[in-house]
Amino acid sequence: MVTDGQVSELRRWLAAGKSLAASARMASMDKKTARSYRDDGRLPSQRKTTRNYRTRTDPFADVWADVEQQLRGEPRLKAKTLFDDLQRQRPGEFDDSTRRTFERRVANWRAIHGPEKTVFFPQDHHPGRFAASDFTVCNSLGVKIAGAVFKHTLFHCVLTYSNVESVSLCFSESFEALSEGIQNAFWQFGGVPIQHRTDSLSAAVRNHSDGKSLTKRYSALMQHYGCAAQKTNARCANENGDVE
């Protein structure tokens, strides 16, 4: 296939006084093709036309209304399940070679008519800029010491670019545990990130206030280290995804 670059090169050689045959060789194309582009002022990309018609009969035209009704009733139905059902209902009518066509059509329907999906924007991480933290209650692990269940919680902090981590043992999600965990992490990291994000835990966020502002003690801790404090929105764990 001839590219726009080849045609541009052909025309440069022709403009320089080279013969058609020589210009075609230097542009790596057949002489007849070169003559065609010499006489036509368009580039290959400008010759292309958009096809707005089907090249073959739609094999699912007669059944698509029923398929669409099933999808509206249960949008979670898989395309393969629907296709297998069509093959059972109409033996010999839908060959396995048409399955991918059917799957693409179902995917297109879901994209246009299916249930709305949550939109996630990719997070752009930079070295030393951002740290995220969270508490993990570990009681369900059933850890025992001397036969007694050891109920405990872990404070987990991670630099989101390098994934360098710090973990501190604690026994509640108190401000003291948060403060100790953050400071331990900063010492282990060997520095302070520009920003630190946590979820809406009560030790850091005044959840009952209208603006859900940060608590005074947490704000003071962040100001002491010169670190900008951030919080995630409620029920949006993806915003703290790296540590989650």
UniProtKB/TrEMBL annotation:
Residues 28-42 have a biased composition (Basic and acidic residues). It comes from the Bacteria. Residues 26-52 are annotated as: Disordered. PANTHER family: INTEGRASE PROTEIN, TRANSPOSASE RV3428C-RELATED. This is Integrase core domain protein. It comes from Neorhodopirellula pilleata.
